[in-house]
């Protein structure tokens, strides 16, 4: 199959101020016409992407991060918005049930329109004494798929904090529970009584909301979790990871998941989670009709795919998709789930475009997938690291194209206004000659990460890689791994409306606070890096952990 450099196509299209790019394939070359300027470029590609070799290439490329604007604006509203309270839950929805303290965001309701339920008293916790104190017996309402009707009396909650959270009169709504779900339920109970971890040689506690919870959850994931990967789906739309470019996160996850021997299980009956191994990048590349401005072909394709696996196997219907997950980094990935309600509402969507304001990405259920810009797939960790706090003379740095609503405001207020604020559009050549994009990131105290067309930006992980404190400007963006990480410990989040006060805000951080944050970024780095062979607590495992953790949150207790 001919390698096609879509990034290059976009660079042309976007660079010309237009984005309509016509793709013409010639036997051994891809020819790109940019309709805006009539410029033509031919890539003779033996590999899918040109490997960057010099710092200046990298800098040029970084500062020219490419995006395709959405063909539909604004994104369509969800067909069925998630219910926020029991009374607003439509029939057949589970009332939301709060998570235990320190357990992360509340899981949203699970759509369920199955038959009548029975009430299932789960097995007692392994450690009765501790569970009696911290975690009272919790009834789980289920529909036993094998028709058993085990009805046990529901013990009342005992801990007062828990009693406040549980509304005993809330309607009991059916969900299908498999044997593997019971294992998840037990894991969830064990996490709720996680032994206290004060410090750990591998985990730096201040980075986490609750390091005890994270450590326990991670251990249990390693011990218990089994993932089934559907074999269905033709290449290259499925099973064909793209390992470079700005959408590389989905590719790396797919590659490492499919190669994995620890978590992957061949027998789907043993699986806790089901992975839909498609590439949103490949779907966009192969199914989008040039100039159509419509995501419809991609959305219908995904709808048909899910219908086919839910007809062929019992698993989708048993959970209505809630134990299925996708990992997709293209901006459109979030929107292209909308033609299949259960895919949109129930499946766990690990997506880069994690925008909480659109009603499609659901905080606590879906996973904010870090966007990583991989320049050279042979060396995903090339040139990482950066200067210590004392050797970062530049206060703030940004260089990039003018996408979306935030960057023009940033440029308006700060471009060439202040020597401390190195805010550029594309990094000017004369500046880059003296100091590359990456050198800027390694020498700046703060790296500004404004949203592009969508809320996400590869700059966040880029900043972390170069040990620069990220400053996120993207209202409604759900930060990666916010289920477990304490973002205030190593980043700044600045509201879009505060862009005029940006310098003041940054200068408001004391030297001591800054040094702590910068050291924390350094310690955080390993959690955001890809490894050819996954390492404990690295990016692959962090993503899988968040899917696991959010799935545990879905195992409802009423
Ligand atoms: C479940 O119930 C249905 C209808 O009542 C019945 O046809 C089916 O055989 C039952 N399955 C099992 C495993 O008992
Ligand atoms: C479901 O029903 C089957 C058959 O009666 C039984 O063996 C199994 O233990 C039940 N599972 C649960 C979770 O009750
Ligand atoms: C408990 O749930 C019932 C039924 O949904 C509702 O009417 C009631 O207001 C709830 N009570 C509290 C305290 O949330
Ligand atoms: C972390 O979670 C554990 C287990 O739920 C709890 O005992 C502990 O108090 C929590 N720690 C903090 C700092 O919240
Ligand atoms: C933390 O770890 C260090 C060594 O790694 C040890 O000396 C110290 O006692 C530990 N502190 C606590 C509170 O466990
Ligand atoms: C799952 O549900 C769909 C829609 O209700 C149905 O068409 C399909 O046949 C079901 N699959 C199985 C395996 O029963
Ligand atoms: C060039 O970069 C160095 C740091 O690498 C800096 O000290 C110097 O001021 C820069 N010169 C110009 C003209 O920007
Ligand atoms: C998160 O970090 C901030 C800044 O270090 C700190 O003030 C806050 O208490 C931390 N939150 C948690 C839950 O540890």
Automatic annotation (TrEMBL):
Transmembrane segments: 21-44
Biased composition (Low complexity): 85-96
Composition skew (Polar residues), residue ranges: 142-152
Domain Exostosin GT47: start-end pairs: 223-506
Keyword Transmembrane helix: yes
Gene Ontology CC terms: Golgi membrane
Keywords per UniProt: Glycosyltransferase, Golgi apparatus, Membrane, Signal-anchor, Transferase, Transmembrane, Transmembrane helix
Gene Ontology molecular function terms on file: glycosyltransferase activity
Comp. bias intervals (Pro residues): 69-84
Location relative to the cell: Golgi apparatus membrane
Annotated membrane topology: Single-pass type II membrane protein
Family, as annotated: Belongs to the glycosyltransferase 47 family.
Name this protein carries in UniProt: Glycosyltransferase isoform X1
Organism: Canna indica (Indian-shot)
